[in-house]
Amino acid sequence: MNSFGRLFRIHIFGESHGESAGLVIDGCPAGLPLSVEDFLTDIERRKGGNHKGTTPRKEDDLPIFKSGIFNGHTTGAPITILFENKNTRSGDYEKQRAVPRPGHADFTAHAKYGGFEDFRGGGHFSGRLTVCMVAAGVIAKKLLGHIQVVSTILEIGGEADLEKGLQKAIDAKDSIGGIVECRVNGLPVGLGEHFFDSAESLISHAVFAIPAVKGIEFGAGFAAARMFGTEHNDAIEDASGKTRTNHAGGIVGGITNGNELVFRIAIKPTSSTPKEQQTWNWETNAIESFSVKGRHDLCIALRVPVVLEAVTAFTLVDLMLLEQRIGRIGPSFML
Amino acid sequence: MNSFGRLFRIHIFGESHGESAGLVIDGCPAGLPLSVEDFLTDIERRKGGNHKGTTPRKEDDLPIFKSGIFNGHTTGAPITILFENKNTRSGDYEKQRAVPRPGHADFTAHAKYGGFEDFRGGGHFSGRLTVCMVAAGVIAKKLLGHIQVVSTILEIGGEADLEKGLQKAIDAKDSIGGIVECRVNGLPVGLGEHFFDSAESLISHAVFAIPAVKGIEFGAGFAAARMFGTEHNDAIEDASGKTRTNHAGGIVGGITNGNELVFRIAIKPTSSTPKEQQTWNWETNAIESFSVKGRHDLCIALRVPVVLEAVTAFTLVDLMLLEQRIGRIGPSFML
Amino acid sequence: MNSFGRLFRIHIFGESHGESAGLVIDGCPAGLPLSVEDFLTDIERRKGGNHKGTTPRKEDDLPIFKSGIFNGHTTGAPITILFENKNTRSGDYEKQRAVPRPGHADFTAHAKYGGFEDFRGGGHFSGRLTVCMVAAGVIAKKLLGHIQVVSTILEIGGEADLEKGLQKAIDAKDSIGGIVECRVNGLPVGLGEHFFDSAESLISHAVFAIPAVKGIEFGAGFAAARMFGTEHNDAIEDASGKTRTNHAGGIVGGITNGNELVFRIAIKPTSSTPKEQQTWNWETNAIESFSVKGRHDLCIALRVPVVLEAVTAFTLVDLMLLEQRIGRIGPSFML
Amino acid sequence: MNSFGRLFRIHIFGESHGESAGLVIDGCPAGLPLSVEDFLTDIERRKGGNHKGTTPRKEDDLPIFKSGIFNGHTTGAPITILFENKNTRSGDYEKQRAVPRPGHADFTAHAKYGGFEDFRGGGHFSGRLTVCMVAAGVIAKKLLGHIQVVSTILEIGGEADLEKGLQKAIDAKDSIGGIVECRVNGLPVGLGEHFFDSAESLISHAVFAIPAVKGIEFGAGFAAARMFGTEHNDAIEDASGKTRTNHAGGIVGGITNGNELVFRIAIKPTSSTPKEQQTWNWETNAIESFSVKGRHDLCIALRVPVVLEAVTAFTLVDLMLLEQRIGRIGPSFML
Predict the structure, then answer these.
(1) What is the reported pLDDT for A52?
(2) What is the CA radius of gyration of chain C?
(3) A324–D327: do the CB atoms touch at under 8 Å?
(4) Per residue, what are the HEC states of chain D?
(5) Phi, psi of D158 (to 5 degrees)
(6) What residues of A are in contact with residue C1 (Cβ under 8 Å)?
(7) In the predicted model, is pLDDT for residue A29 greater than 50?
(8) Are A143 and A32 in contact (CB under 8 A)?
(9) What angle do helix axes B304-322 and B199-207 make, rounded to 10 degrees?
(10) What residues form DSSP beta bridges with B81?
């Protein structure tokens, strides 16, 4: 299912080179002011156009409101937003159909859907659909009010100096990965539950919906595995739950503890790379060399921060609604 | 909610020092042979009793079947299994109530449940409930038939030599963390969906339900962030989808690709440590030193492999049922 | 939430006088042939245009495929279909805003959504959205193959002669209700579960989503309350489960028994009626007389059969998928 | 799945002649006082022991708390309650196994679960599990506070004089059905949503989980199908939404309107009847006469009111939580 959330429920749909991509949000409180302008900054951020290393494809991705918005406010009914696809060049992709691209969903989608999958540009299995996540994130961030969700790139190709990392990829004529961090300030104590609905469970569930993510760690994360207990434990300092250190990353026992939420994700290198690769050919049943044509990012991680903010924000809105920290009607969502 | 799964649904309940811990499984196919003996090995593995560094508490955790099993087979109706709590010493914990232990859920549970939470030994917020996960895992592993789910400890306190890692903790009189890996062989191509129900999303959702997990990575994981695309991409070699390398860890585009599923998790050091720590006292509103009394593991990671196998197994059963790879009735679950 | 189904999941959205109405279907098997032509008959049936007593509004409701369909077949990805709204006359409704129409959702929607609801023509709370149900039904009926779902009107205004019933309404210049029956032949034994997921529970859940339904009964229904056990019990006659009578309506213990599924629903009279009524005015806080202007059906029951077939069909597809009676891939959905 | 509810989630399990029947409630707010005594009245009502026509089986059904209750209050963790089975006489049933009893789930359960179902006394497919619903109802009614849920029997065997109806059954040596009504006072405006989560959809979903229910109608129900619009529409009289009449039964557009919630259900005659019946024999493949031995109610409808109150109450608690009309923590559930 392409759905996520219990009370603030996101459904995404669409294809890279089909009619459109879009989303339906069920459970958004009524009375939130919403306009096309609210989306422009984050949609622009997702294009990653200011960086070298991102694809020049211009999508002019204006959100088209199809339901749930009236007189500039959400109505409480399902919100539907479409992004139409323009300027697509399917020809780039069709000739490669017999060759499942390594690192792409070509092979798995074909096996799962018996050849009926839309294979143009990855079809449904495309980073194109992250624009839907970003749109949901815009709405979620408005609902979160003063709670700030901020993602930044920590490193590209192992380099904290991002320009240096990108230059490495350009020099090698190869794609490259990166690490992105997300920090959230202003969260109340008490979001999430122990075990299956832990805050970590829900956030990681949403985060692994972003294509190319291969790892996540909260707080000290993998480094915690090498610490002693007295090093790792965060001493509580007052009645608000404030801790001296924050190795837990703001979640203890699956529940937010009122400190900064901190986690990092690993982004693999873009699967499409200008460099020659080998793969097996469905028609000839032989291994062959090929190289990916078309417009592709050298480093998809550059586009990830706004998507990561988005999935984090809508997961948190759901957790806030479950804890009744956001009202269901009218201006009560102002926290 | 303490539930997980769409078609093979696990519910866990109970407290560390209450009446019992237990589970209900909804959606288990009828006709699976099941006896108390099936559970003994995994329950014993969870106790971690053979290692130094695990708690000496003897639980004699025999599963008590309360529903859903008849004439030694599952009936298709909900399966309920209880584990009774014996040999508990609540006194160890009650006197510490005013002192929320760092790294434990004491503070967050109190804030969330308004002081009504069962605070004895962590109450519901206790590793005790992992016995319920293990029990569900026993059933799930039987359903998986020849698909092998195997977890191993990769390192303890940064040491691949586990004895050495444990000795480090014993010498420091402090607790310590570790890294655990899970590998699954024999999975079909096609489990999981793109985006929100990706195999990574569902597995990580389940895995972060295990207390003390702070990170997860699939295949190359965080190392992928430092690789070039041509290094990371796994070249497909034949019609079965077999790849030359396995940096993807067996999942591409959120869907299993028929190769070995591989992922690793980071376990933080046990929160309870014999060493003195500082925390804030609810009653005195002052920071004070304290040390945790009672029986505790120095390294909870030692108990994790069987729990990790369990949550992985029941997540995979759910994915297999969704893809109709396991029949709903009778002996057809034999794959 | 405007969603229904566990594996074949329907989401509907839209407003009567907004941009559009539409639906997303998640979980439709790949490989089902689908064209605009498949929808025309049922969409036409929903208009009820051949009967006197239905509104003359012409909607030209052509489905617009926005995702999930490629080369004339479903792809396995979410299917999105839009119906654009044309020829709406909002002016008819706006002047009545202060007057919550009796029998309509005007009052309850206002109370629930704090005045942010789209009030034009009922907004989201409109029979307009049944076109989305009908579209989902078209797809579901194709998936059901030889299983026939057929709804017929049993009576209008208490008359089995429908013309007579309608004439009664026309003469009285008032709206009128009716009773609609649904019969399904060809169902396998074993759909549904005891208790909360009984076939009756799921069907009635879906059926009460149709506006104006106020009752449902299966088989002998309310008449069963006046029968003796030996009268009501259906004697089983052979190994297929065929019964001599069918007072159970094809469901025993919440599970289909292989006989014809039979149930009836009660449709209240159209809330909008040309006759003068009384209601309370929000602005004046006084009770006043008013009459509904605009185009309205005298008997909404005339449009219900195709909607009832639709919700029944998609509920049954979900039940069939849960029992693995429909394959997930390719032509295997051909039963 | 034997689960119901989105935020206040009920899971039931067990068998008629197995170890036990029981339930898990997930999502119950913390801080509700709860003792065994709270359950006694409703459990006694369910036995129907004061009426002639109910089975003499004495169950002494004391609830055994297994989790989620501490110091006499709910803790916010899952609540598990067991009812142990005693005084069962399986021998009564085993000899009849080859003969699927008409009106029972014997045939459908066998077909669905391939012969692995527990067939003793109906096994999982037994009215025995309604004790679990009743227990959930006790908790739900406490949460509803001053909102009163009251069910009464309207008729037995077509007689409003219940003694007369029962005597009819006793004279005929046959079982008999009945009609039960439920009325709820004090509900706020705004529970339920249009379409798939309408209050009618959710209530009917829960109600058809009660064995033997074959119909439900809200307000005027089936009679509405024969009314004119001006007759049926309930004129709104003031800002609270109070209506002059209540043909809608307290729900308009799927949403509660603040008036009394009223609905009725049809209960078929008890399937087990002392009178001789015919059915087909699995072993001989011939039709034969048989009569049901053992202890059975002549009129199961007599036991239904308390079960109907229960499922109504827990459905309403879920709707109240969704609308944030019940707080998640501490004494705030006092409305």
Answers:
(1) 62
(2) 21
(3) yes
(4) CCEECCCCEEEEEECCCCCEEEEEEECCCCCCECCCHHHHHHHHHHHCCCCCCCCCCCCCCCCEEEECEECCEECCCCEEEEEECCCCCCHHHHCCCCCCCCCCCHHHHHHHHCCCCCCHHHCCCCHHHHHHHHHHHHHHHHHHCCCEEEEEEEEECCECCHHHHHHHHHHHCCCECEEEEEEEECCCCCCCCCHHHCHHHHHHHHHCCCCCEEEEEECCHHHHHHCEHHHHCCCECCCCCCECCCCCCCEECCEECCCCEEEEEEECCCCCCCCCEEEECCCCCCEEEECCCCCCCCCHHHHHHHHHHHHHHHHHHHHHHHCCCCCCCHHHHCC
(5) 85, 0
(6) 9, 26-27
(7) yes
(8) yes
(9) 140
(10) B23, B65
- Between residues D119 and B164, which one has the greater pLDDT? B164
Q: Are D157 and D176 in contact (CB under 8 A)?
A: yes
C-alpha B26/C-alpha D275 separation (Å) is 37
* Residue D182, strand partner residues: D151, D263
Residue A142 assigned to a binding site = no
Q: Provide the 8-state DSSP code for A176.
A: B
Q: What average pLDDT does chain D have?
A: 91
Chain B positions in Cβ-Cβ contact with residue A219 (cut-off 8 Å): 214
**Which of A66-80, A153-167, B109-123 has the weakest average pLDDT?**
B109-123
Helical pair C130-144 and C37-47, crossing angle rounded to 10 deg = 130
Q: For chain A, what is the mean pLDDT?
A: 91
A132 near C46, Cβ under 8 Å?
no
Residue A289, annotated ligand binder?
A: no
Spatial CA neighbour of B304 closest among B65, B84, B53: B53
Whether the CB of D122 is below 8 Å from some CB of chain B: the reply is no
Closest-CA distance, A73 to chain B, in angstroms, reads 27
Nearest chain C residue (CA) to B324: C324
Helix (H) or strand (E) holding C212: none
Nearest to D216 among C111, C216, C239 (CB): C216
What average pLDDT does range D255-274 have in this prediction? 96
Alpha-helix runs per DSSP H in chain C: 37-47, 91-94, 106-113, 130-144, 162-172, 199-207, 229-232, 304-322
pTM: 0.96
Q: E strand or H helix at C239, and its extent? A: none
Q: Which residues contact B161 (CB under 8 A, 6 or more apart)?
A: none
Residue B81, pLDDT > 90, answer yes
Instruction: Delimit the domains of chain A by residue range.
Output: 3-333
Tell if the CB–CB gap between B118 and D329 is shorter than 8 Å.
no
* Model pLDDT for residues B100-155, shown as the tens digit of each residue: 999 999 999 999 998 899 988 888 989 999 999 999 999 999 999 999 999 999 99
3-state secondary structure of B136: helix
Residue A41 Rama label (left phi>0; alpha psi -120 to 50; beta): alpha
Q: Which long-range contacts (CB under 8 A, 24 or more apart) does A325-330 make?
A: A325/A188, A325/A191, A326/A29, A326/A143, A327/A29, A327/D324, A328/A29, A328/A30, A328/A76, A328/D323, A328/D324, A329/A29, A329/A30, A329/A31, A329/A76, A329/C112, A329/C113, A329/C114, A330/A29, A330/A30, A330/A31, A330/C114, A330/C115, A330/C116
What's the gap in Å between the CA of C157 and the closest CA on chain A? 33
Q: For residue D328, list chain A residues with Cβ-Cβ distance below 8 A.
A: 323-324
Tell me the chain C residues in contact with residue B323 when contact means C-beta distances shorter than 8 Å.
328
**Cβ B123–D21 below 8 Å, yes or no?**
no
Instruction: Provide the residue count of chain C.
Output: 335
Answer yes or no: CATH 3.60.150.10 is held by domain B3-333. yes
Cβ-contact A269, B228 below 8 angstroms? yes
User: Cβ(A245)–Cβ(A235) under 8 Å?
Assistant: yes
